[in-house]
Amino acid sequence: MKRSIITGQRLAAVFLLGFVLFNYPLIALFNKPGEIFDIPLLYFYLFGVWALLIALMAWAIERRKE
Amino acid sequence: MLQGWVIASASFAYLGVLFAIAYFGDKRADTGRSVIANPTIYALSLAVYCTTWTFYGSVGRAASTGIGFLPIYLGPTLMAGLWWFVMLKIIRISKANRITSIADFIASRYGKSQLLGGLVTVIAVVGIVPYISLQLKAVSNSFIILLNYPEIVMPAKAGAQPLLQDSALYIAMILAAFTILFGTRHLDATERHEGMVAAIAFESLVKLVAFLAVGLFVTFGIYNGFGDIFDRAEALPKLKALMTVADTGASYGSWWSLTFLSMLSIMFLPRQFQISVVENVNERHLARAIWLFPLYLILINLFVLPIALGGMLHFPGGNVDADTFVLTLPMAERQEALALLVYIGGLSAGTGMVIVETIALSTMVCNDLVMPVLLRWKALRLHQEHDLSGLLLAIRRWAIAAILLLGYIYFRAAGEAYALVGIGLISFAAVAQFAPAIVGGIYWKGGTRRGAIAGLLAGFAVWAYTLLLPSFAKSGWLSLDFIREGLFGVALLKPQQLFGLAGLDDISHSLFWSMLANIGCYVAVSLRRPPDVVETSQGTLFVDVFRHTEGGAGSRFWRGSAQVQDLLPLIGRFLGPERAREAFLAYARRRGVASVEALEANADLVHYAETLLAGAIGGASARVMVASVVKEEPLGIDEVMNILDEASQVRAYSKQLEQKSRELEAATAELRAANERLKELDRMKDDFMSTVTHELRTPLTSIRAFSEILLEDPKTDLIDRRKFLAIIVKETERLTRLINQVLDMAKIESGNAEWHTAEVDLHEIIEESIAATSSLFSDKRIGLEMALEGGVPKVMADRDRLIQVMLNLLSNAVKFCEAGHGRVKVGLHLAAGAVRVDVADNGPGISLAEQGTIFEKFRQGGDTMTAKPQGTGLGLPISRQIIEHFGGRLWVESSLGKGATFSFSLPLEERKTK
Q: Do the domain assignments include residue B831?
């Protein structure tokens, strides 16, 4: 596999973003009672960020030129 | 009605399908048409990460900790982002060195150490066996629960059943047979099992479908969607608490440490290493798995919390174990088919994990534990055996059976001591101990064998003390006093509050202390003394793998003598004689050698043989075996360093060489151009000389002819005499003019001409030139037209020289105009920062080809072959030189039959003075 530099940087950035979004203190902002679309706030936040990270990784991988 | 025979036959039918897939996959692999050469299959097979611990256990964990089940899956998602760097490197290293297990990887990195390989194997077996018992327990429990359909009865404590009625025993036996069939059908030098991977990918699909089916049924069948479940749960304070995590530092701390732990597990669990590294067909597949695998994880987790909440709402009494909600909810709703599907899904999660894990562990046990001992055991006389491949397969088969038996024994012994999730995390923490040695090993050349051994031992010891022993104590095998009071009653040694560190959950606590001990010992011991020869060379091969993959890197560090007739039988003993011969023949063909016997036993071949053997018995044993038949001259550390230095120096030199050769090429091109130019000048000089002599001879010939007539014939009458003398005078003038012009040209070209630059008014110059040539115009009756723009500024130039140019242009114009009909037009105007003068005639015009040449010396307008030359051929070249001297430009525009316009322009800002 050709190691495209920009793809590696994008994926590393997704990792860093995920690490920040999934941990204290940001997670504490959503750790409270409340609902969005009938879904508990924290549950909604975690799955939303999770889906976002997957989308970003798919974007980084699939648009690289080989 | 789900009877025992229905469930049993469904199970066997499912296992039969799996085996058919595996068989098909192996057949296709043998014919070279791999079914698993596909990134999606690769990503699905990675989902072997999700075991029954996910399938049943996640719901159980969610029921007790709410959202706390998620970090186990968030960690791998995050790690996938780093796979691009870390995993790719590990895959590349493993392919280059034919690494077949995680023990082999660590042993190879630190100088092919058998001790290290054995240590890693022991840690892996101790850490993973409880995890295997977990799978047995989950599968057997789900079987028992389903057997009691429609009653929902929790299975009795495992140990309570008589041995021969225990379904887990039969499950363990069936799985052992199944794994042996899957994993050890034949011995492969690369230790890859294509059929098994295909079956694992299929299992991943089955468990995902089953889990999504039950999730959809609970969420939308029993309840009215997510909103309904969450609304009902919020009404109960006990369930409401599950929507958030406790807002304390400790709970965020354990959130973080679980994420970190699962990040390491996804890389270093033996089954993950087996699937993602050893079974990887093409490293390109990794790219898509980076996002497909997290996608799988999010899908299988989507319904965990709804099922957990739904189960707790449905069975409020608490007499149904939350670990079984996935199965008991469809049962309570009398969904026989769905319950059976869930059972099959759980079975697939359990079998997938057990198959891959036991194959990985059996490879490690065989290569890194049993073989090194057997090969050293002189009494066995193994070195006299001709074919050991059968022995290797037998060891692996026994190892598989033994591992599953150990799993079953642990299951019987541990029983209900811990919930499913507890055991899973203990295993994770055990394999996390491999992380410093591996990650350090692929990025840091300074790590040594002693450092890795020290780190692993320390980390493993702390893990055992803080997690494993307390779990034994909780199972009632040890006195609980040791947890409560500490070892020997010393409070600082309490295993779950080591050195008084309280406030962390037991996993985080153990992870912190074991990692501290592991990394600390690894780094400190590594730094105590520099790496030795083998460590340095292996370290370089691992850390710089992307630079060394291009052929023959491993053989650089070997020097000695060997014989093909020694190597071939050695490899044959482990791979089987035919396979070994085939492999050597393939190698010979690649080198363009006709037969195996003709091969030269050089460092490359020895290295090839060693990697071949490493695939079968592991790197450390392979090294020992190869060393037994070849005479190796040990390389000193200095020599290894020299090779490395040489390599980098060679690279530097070759860069310099490239640079130099590029410079040389450029210089050569310049020289060639200069040479061409010189040749051209030489040719021009010759042309010039011959033209000048030719031009001189013409007038001289006519002067001489007429002079001779006058001399020899005194009777020539006066009229003829005058006529002849006039011709002589005219030819002499022409001669003088020619010589003057040649001298002029030479002066200008050599830069010796005198220039009197001053401000000149072009108006004046034009008028003066026209006055000087007016007789020419009137002689040939040629009309003259002037279009001189007023107010044109003065330019800096030499007045006399400009008049010379004008005279030349005007006389040329007259020369080429037909007498009587000719018209010459002189123009002067300003144009874009310059003054432009045009002299246009209505003569025959100049063809495009001629326009380029008339400015060359001695080229004359008109047909020189037939007509008498009308000028010297130097006027225009001199004029152009003059104009260009003042920074201007002289050019012609013309077409045949339409006259010609000679123009020159002089820049206004010109300040050039010479």
A: yes
